[in-house]
Amino acid sequence: MKINDLTLTLAGSGGDGVITTGDFITRAASSDGIYCLTQMSYGPQIRGGESSIRVRMSHKQAQSRGDFVDSLLVFSWKDYKRFTDEVELRPGALVLYEEADKESPADFLPADIELRLQAVPFKKIAQEDVGVPLTKNMVALGVLAEIHGFNQERLKQAIMDKYGKKRPEAAAKNIEAFDAGKAWAQEHGPKEERLQLEPNGGERLLVMNGDEALAYGALQAGVRYYAGYPITPATPILHWLQQELPRFGGTVIQAEDEISAITQCVGASWAGVKAMTASSGPGIALMMEAMGLAGMAEIPLTIVNVQRVGPSTGIPSKPEQADLLQALGMHGDVPHAIFAPADVEDCFQVAMEAVACSERYQMPVIILSDQFIGERFESLRGDRFLERVKQVERDLPELSPERKYQRYAFSESGVSPMAVPGLEGGQYITSGLEHDESGAPTSSSEYHQLMSDKRAAKLKGVAEDFDFARVYGNKDAEFGIICWGSLKGAVREAIMRAQDEGLKVAAYVPQLLYPVPQRSLSEFLKGKRKVMVLELSHGAQFYHYLKGYATDLPEEFLSHCRAGGHLFSIEEVLKLIRTHSVSELVA
């Protein structure tokens, strides 16, 4: 049966090559014009142990990972057990598993739905027919390609792209294993009810994950200094920039810890270079003091937090939205801004907006991404990136020998032109101490009030200049959903299904979280009798934040939240819509 939307999952141990196999499928499909959304999952130990990859392929750009898996391939049932809460099999789904595995599939699969099970001798084919046991994942790739109708030439090209130049012998063996798997599927694979992906024939698509897209956006925004310390799931930002930034005259430093990383960026920015660092929740905690320094000294700085399940080490390989209060809670009323991307393509745009905001308003700006966005791969149209390039430069002072440069001169916007080293007459004192207009330290409570007012005045401009939000659904709906970040995809697809059922509902997904984007939020709230906030936060952080800071909220302002790790499904959101908008059926 030909279809235009297919979701498959592969699971095994860290050495089974399931991630590589899924990556080949993603890149081959994308080169054939098919949109993919690919999510990888690992055990809590990060390295080694079990791993899985989920690939959703569609003729239209996928908004979410999808609710159900159509095809499952398992190399090890014991390893698969760690991912059972992430894999909801569609009734009638195909399950391919290692024939030599001594465990019984019945002990790991749901008993309440009908499934099509088939044992496959992946190991035996790799060892006896190919002579290289490690190629069993390429045997599996050949089996999947034959059963699901993948473009086999594109898959072979993906193999050659990875191994052909540096390891031609390995490439040849992998191709041989692929063909062996294909031959087995032709003779022994399921003959009926094969779900085969319809060829799309579209333009070749670019494949990136959210961390890479964010790094690319920062580069296009003019960032030329990056310092960071490796931490899951933010490390791909460091890796990508290490490779690319030096080609554009930039510098990348792998620091000894997060404190060193951010203070280096503060220094680079003070010297006139756009700078960025990135980490996850535990590392961001170490950076807080230096963020305060950047705020007090009014130094532009972009900080990325790719959130994971916390607190502490938590679950490094899964997403959560529980660092919002951490991002809001700068010590000492430091004015700053918080942005949140909603998908991989959005990471590119948000990076540029965040850098622009930090430069224009001379303040620390935090980007709150998460593991699901940061480490998932998506197929994207490459031309959409260069259409959106945005660069903003900080204001430089007009210096004169006749008057002393006042670095922190009062202004209506709160922004005062910032000199950089080397400008004649632009010398000034700066530190983490409170100061007067010239930068000279002061312990005057009167000056502290005046300078606090000056710094806080910037927030009004940020809210006006960077108020961007996505709104989906019916404009006249009386029930609305507010969410942020990676929840956008499931919410958007749920709204589309709800509209097919005749339900009226609307959703609001802000890109700027702090300060509150009150203009777009108030516009969305018009006519809403009931609004629900969805979030992956055990303590309903976004809900309580909006309750405390936003205006025009309806009387029925509800919260639906839970701890991270397990993403909201489309069906889960749809059930909420049915419950709360049931009176709004279209006649």
Q: What is the residue-averaged pLDDT?
A: 94
Tally the structural domains. 4
The helix-and-strand class reads alpha/beta
Shape: globular
**Which topology of the largest domain does CATH recognise?**
Pyruvate-ferredoxin Oxidoreductase, domain 3
Low-pLDDT segments, ≥5 res = none
| Radius of gyration from the alpha-carbon trace, in angstroms | 26 Å
Distance between the termini: 36 Å
Question: What topology does this entry show?
Answer:
Blueprint: E1 2-3, E2 5-13, H1 18-31, E3 35-42, E4 50-58, E5 69-74, H2 77-80, E6 89-98, E7 116-120, H3 122-130, H4 136-148, H5 152-163, H6 168-188, E8 196-197, E9 206-209, H7 210-221, E10 225-228, H8 235-244, E11 251-254, H9 258-270, E12 275-279, H10 281-297, E13 301-307, H11 324-328, E14 337-339, H12 344-361, E15 364-370, H13 371-375, E16 377-380, H14 383-386, H15 445-456, H16 458-465, E17 469-473, E18 479-482, H17 488-500, E19 506-510, E20 512-514, H18 518-525, E21 530-535, H19 541-549, E22 556-561, H20 570-580
Parallel strand pairs: 1-8, 2-5, 5-6, 6-7, 10-11, 10-12, 12-13, 13-15, 14-15, 18-19, 18-21, 21-22
Antiparallel strand pairs: 2-4, 3-4, 3-16, 9-16, 14-20, 17-19
Please provide a written account of the structure.
There is one protein chain. The protein is α/β, with parallel strands linked by helices and 587 residues long. It is built from 20 helices and 22 strands. The protein has 4 domains: 2-204, Pyruvate-ferredoxin Oxidoreductase, domain 3; 208-386, Thiamin diphosphate (ThDP)-binding fold, Pyr/PP domains (Rossmann fold, 3-Layer(aba) Sandwich), CATH 3.40.50; 395-466, no CATH class; 469-584, Rossmann fold, CATH 3.40.50. Strands 7-6-5-2-4-3-16-9 form an 8-stranded mixed sheet. Strands 11-10-12-13-15-14-20 form a 7-stranded mixed sheet, with helices on both faces. Helix 10 (281-297) links the parallel strand 12 and strand 13 (301-307). The longest helix is centred in the N-terminal third of the chain and has 21 residues, at 168-188.
